[in-house]
Amino acid sequence: MNATPLPPRPASLDDPLYYLHNFRSALRWIEACYVDLFDDEERDFLTRFETLPEPAQALWVRMVMRKGDTFRDDRLDYAEIGTPSSAMVALIECEWVEDDPPLSLAVLWPLLTKAEIGRHLHGLLRDHGLTRGARKADMLEVLAEADLGEHSLTAWCPEIPFKVVRMTRMALCERLRLMFFGNLHQDWSEFVLADLGVRRFERVPLSPASRAFQRREDIHTYVHLHACRERLEAGEPIADILHDVPAADDNPWLENRRGKLLFLLARAREREGALEAAAGLYAQSVHPGARGRRLRMLERQACHAEALALANDAAAAPESEAERQQLDRLLPRLHRRLALAPPSVTEEPVPPRLEMTLPRTASVERAVVEHLSCESMPVYYVENALINALFGLLCWEAVFAPLAGAFFHPFQRAPADLLRPEFASRRETLFTRCLARLEVPEGEHGYRAVIRRTYHAKHGLESAFVQWEALDETLLEMALACLPAAHLRLWFERLLRDVRANRAGMPDLIQFRPEQGDYRMIEVKGPGDRLQDNQRRWLAFCARHGMPLDVCHVTWAS
Where do the VRR-NUC domain residues begin and end (predicted)? Predict the structure, then answer.
């Protein structure tokens, strides 16, 4: 391209062809970023799309944005396009749409209403002992057993008053969507939501170098892994999927996705009772927790010596606090079963315990808030929202830094590597600078001023850390007045050590004492409720550092 296009921005919904303008904008951006990785099909598609009449372009994009790839032509009527038949002719001529394609019953059934099935397929229903009054799903179940094959709509229903068409370039469009978003869980509706103001995003500087994939084979690997994941969710046999899992990849991002797939396949094997096979798959996975699950499989198979050797390796370099917690439970059991001296285990401090009997309500946390809160010592139900939000506001510039491979389209609420181990290390200098502000409580560059400025300047923008609806100015000011900077630093540093695990599990409530300038946290447990492992880790961390914390156990008044 002669000039680098501006990063795509949503077209105004006042324009009837807003979706076409958005799609064109995305195509220009994809071409600028990926022209060196395009295959012949993609190059041909972009060239031919520009030469199509505008109504044909618009109709194509309308179909791309709908679910599936097979449509009735009488349901493709859009006022801004005009007569759909002429636009469709252009798409059929360039072989992007197949006219009257062969249809299985599974594809045909959703296209027809129950009345249309009764009217046009009554002979087929009668031949298989079905009546028009049967449920639509029951009809399909009975007919599916007959294995009737695939036929065109005109063969199934010769007198039906509409046609069916099928898009033939959906796989290509999925690849283009993948190149733009760097994932397949976002779609083109992001443009619409952004224009409506439903979702607003930070504007991170982008360039054609800001792209998700650097090699053509990376795109194919992602698509392949995604297809295997979909097959697993659809219930295909595990053995068939395993045969198609790609080999290990030297791209850490893709290897993490492959590790997650292997982890899910191992869990499926585990549920089937195939413990040895599950252990083997866990051994191949780099997904967090895979080694811990493998240890469980070895223990359940009574392979105690092998489990102990692996557990000792893990104890020498735990992948996370969660694994360390698991090993503290597992190692004593393995030592007992092998008649070995018990290992030394560090006892974690136990927070003070409160007992309360309260009138029954729908929310045990709200009941404690109402019981303890007063004007001079208000209590807020914050759970994970407050500490995460304060971190996100103080470190906004570090989280949204335009690092290579972090941001590659305008609709990201977080960098692509947020949950990967290298998230903090890649931004070490930036986070060090942000956390250093905690040493300066007041003044223009102090942490309180920075958090306030960010709160007002960025309010409403999507963020993986800030839930705006859970943080009003009253709560923010109370937190800034009562939470010591030293405690904020400890919480933020722990969060950065493992974002995936540590942004959850924080205490439910916080009580402020503005007159004293301090606070206490309260974890609430209702009748029959127990502490989860991530909560135990947070409670132990807070107790270890002398943070004021109670665990409140509630029973209901009879």
Answer: 442-556
Q: List helix spans (H) across 347-399.
A: 364-372, 385-394, 396-399
**Token digits of residue 206:** 């982008």
pTM above 0.90, yes or no: no
Is residue 455 exposed (0-12), middle (13-18) or buried (19+ Cβ within 10 Å)?
buried
CA-to-CA distance for 222 and 457, rounded, in angstroms? 37
Q: What angle do CA 240, 243, 248 make, to 5 degrees?
A: 140
Q: How far apart are CA 549 and CA 492, in angstroms?
A: 18
Q: According to the 3-state scheme, what is the secondary structure of 13-43?
A: CCCCCHHHHHHHHHHHHHHHHHCCCCCHHHH
323 is a domain residue: yes
Average pLDDT of the segment spanning 60-83: 92
Q: How far apart are CA 223 and CA 228, in angstroms?
A: 9
Q: How many domains does the chain have?
A: 4
**Cα separations in angstroms, 175 against 33, 42, 71, 188:** 14, 9, 21, 13
**Residues whose CB is less than 8 angstroms from the CB of residue 145 and which lie 6 or more positions away in sequence, other chains included:** none
The DSSP element (H or E) to which 523 belongs, if any, is strand 518-525
Q: Are 409 and 509 contained in the same domain?
A: no
DSSP H or E segment with residue 511 = strand 509-513
* Among 496, 402, 399, 481, residue whose Cα is nearest residue 448: 481
Same domain, 166 and 278: no
Separation of CA 47 from chain center: 34
Same domain, 459 and 550: no
440 Cβ neighbours under 8 A, 6+ residues apart: 446, 447
- Given phi > 0 = left and psi -120 to 50 = alpha, else beta, which region is 409? beta
pLDDT band of residue 508 (cuts 50, 70, 90) is very high
Helix (H) or strand (E) holding 223: helix 216-233
**In sequence order, what are the residues at sequence separation of 6 or more whose Cβ sits closer than 8 angstroms to the Cβ of residue 2?**
none
Give residue-wise pLDDT tens across range 105-120: 999 999 999 999 999 9
Using DSSP, state whether 88 is helix, strand or coil.
helix
Write the CA distances from 433 to 37, 267, 487, integer angstroms.
Answer: 38, 42, 17
Please give the structure tokens belonging to residue 230: 């979909």
- CATH number for the domain spanning 363: value is 3.40.1350.10
Read off the pLDDT of residues 82-97 as tens digits, 9 standing for 90 and up: 888 889 999 999 999 9
Which region holds residue 96: left if phi is over 0, alpha if psi is between -120 and 50, else beta?
alpha
Question: Residue 264: pLDDT above 80?
Answer: yes
Distance of CA 458 to the CA centre of its chain: 23
Residues near 138 by beta carbon (within 8 Å), at least 6 away in sequence:
130
What are φ and ψ of residue 70, in 5° steps?
Answer: -125, 130
- Cross-strand bridge partners of residue 166: 70, 98
Give me the mean pLDDT over the 455-477 stretch. 96
Looking at the fold, whether 48 and 111 belong to one and the same domain comes out as yes
